[in-house]
Amino acid sequence: MSSGPPDAPRQVRARARALLRRILPRTLAARTALFLLLALMAVQAAGLTIHALDRVDLQRAATEREMSARVFGLWRAMVLAVPERRGLVLSEIELPTGLDASLDDQPAVRVGMLPAPPPVLRMIRPEILLGGPPRLRPREIQAGMRFGTLYVSFRMPDGGQWLNVILHMPPLRPWHSETFLIAFLLMTAAAALLIVWATRRLTRPVRDLARAANALGRDVNAPPMPEEGPFEVATAAHAFNTMAERIRRFVGDRTQMLAAIGHDLRTPITRLKLRAEFMEDDEQRAKMLADLEEMEAMVNATLAFARDDAAAEPSVPLDLAALCRTVLDEAADARPHADAEDFAYAGPERLTVRGRPIALKRALANLVANAANYGGTARVVLSPPQGGQIHLRVEDDGPGIPEESQEAVFQPFRRLEASRNRETGGVGLGLPIARNILRAHGGDVTLRNRPEGGLCAEVTLPA
Q1: Is 457 a residue whose pLDDT tops 90?
Q2: Distance CA 356, CA 435 (A)
């Protein structure tokens, strides 16, 4: 027996969550302010509803008292007056707005009118008239409604004329004061401003913690957070500063250990080089020296990647356009047989950014060398800042990289055998080092194949 697709409710919930994520603000302060404002609106709506219902009840009770008193006074004046003078007496009585009366030979209530409901009929209190002395009681009372107007006909005790009373139902005004709406809007605006100010102030430690974490990710020696504010905030700041100090200690210990390893490794490699020089077999000597050179290059590259020497370099304003041209010139000088257009620059003459000059030069040099070694060319295209980001492309005319491997090559020591071999001299650390440096500056680098052929390294940096 089938009960329908089991994933349907799950898909509906997923779509609802996705819609909610698009509607809700992104920041914690905005979401908190939104929820508090909605709660304030709900509470105010409930309070206004209660206030309006109370005012409606009060107005209805006041209207009932006034109308019943007017109708009773009108009836008493008609009953006590001489029949010949009733018309004159009625014309001299001043009736309130919404109440009309006339003396007629026929009742104003006609066939087809709706019966008056008890709450409406209660406005004229007919029981007061029926409870009076017999000589003052109306012989007959008829009541009906038409288009929201109450018609009541009282027959005189002598059985003659009818006193027809027409009551136009007054509109109930729950907001009687003209300044009530203005006062309500001012109160709501003041509460909204207070909510926004309070939420921004309460969520400021979260923003400070996010900025401190971002700064620590870029620079392990970033200054500590201030340990002040409420107890929970101060505790979180103290925990973050403790974590940062442990990370700095760990990085320092690792740097010292790697420096010692580098020193210990270079010494036997140097001894092996000296011993290889005394070998009589020229072919074996050349092979051994080549292996030792490769080993030394691998050790130096690995130690440089692990130490991350650029982390201690200060950040200063620099001309990124000039830096790109310098890197291209140095790459072209290292390949004297290459054509001039193989190492070309396109972009603005000057573009100032803030960063670590040596580290950025190393990252760009690695990308340009990677393009030159495996693509034969290296063209740098620098775009002006847009949306707070600087975009830079390093393009080549090589075979490119399979799409499934474009992210894997950023792993240390990862090399693609189809295009990366030992003859290039690389050890698989150029791209990881470039990405680490760019991410430490708040940017990143990704790879993609160009439609016209070749590989493109796309670099982003904060403007």
Answers
A1: yes
A2: 14
